[in-house]
Write a structure and sequence with these properties.
The structure holds 2 protein chains of 2 kinds. By secondary structure, chain A is an all-beta fold. Helix content of chain A is 0%, strand content 61%. Classes of the chains: A mainly beta, B mainly beta. Chains A and B meet through strand 4, strand 5, strand 9 and strand 10 of A and strand 4, strand 5, strand 9 and strand 10 of B.
Chain lengths: 109, 116
Amino acid sequence: KNEVEQSPQNLTAQEGEFITINCSYSVGISALHWLQQHPGGGIVSLFMLSSGKKKHGRLIATINIQEKHSSLHITASHPRDSAVYICAVRSYNTDKLIFGTGTRLQVFP
Amino acid sequence: EPEVTQTPSHQVTQMGQEVILRCVPISNHLYFYWYRQILGQKVEFLVSFYNNEISEKSEIFDDQFSVERPDGSNFTLKIRSTKLEDSAMYFCASSEGVLMYTGELFFGEGSRLTVL
């Protein structure tokens, strides 16, 4: 079983729709990261969080430590949001990130 | 905005050849990482580096791999004798620290390695 599971694996949306991507993990963590991978392969950090909620522009990330679950929301989605969104966790006493398999999002005009 | 830079962006090599992938982390960062992503698979941790030594490595990071910070700015990944299964995108990343306010990771654009 993967330590980090994401759902859905693939997601298509019409421009303007509200998007939710979910991440569940099975290990104790010190932090959870949401990352965006562009079609060309480059990875950009969106959020790093260990509790509560963070917001940046149209992106919102939430985490529930007790339930070992996090969500990434995109409000008013746009075609430029099309990318792979990856959840990754850092477990206690380790440097490494454990990555989920990613959610491929396509937003159509 | 400061960024992590990687070279080369793409390298093609013959099996058995040595490859060096180079990274220039953000200048005030102290923690450095290499990750790899085989085509169609998830990103995997290879190694972390702090205070001029490896702090953690994965089982993938065997004796064929080594890392070095030769001059205080570059951070290199060397694969001594490449195998077909080393074909992947290799990402360098750096962070200022590991705590909540310093642990944000900054990734380079990746170096695609193709082993023939």
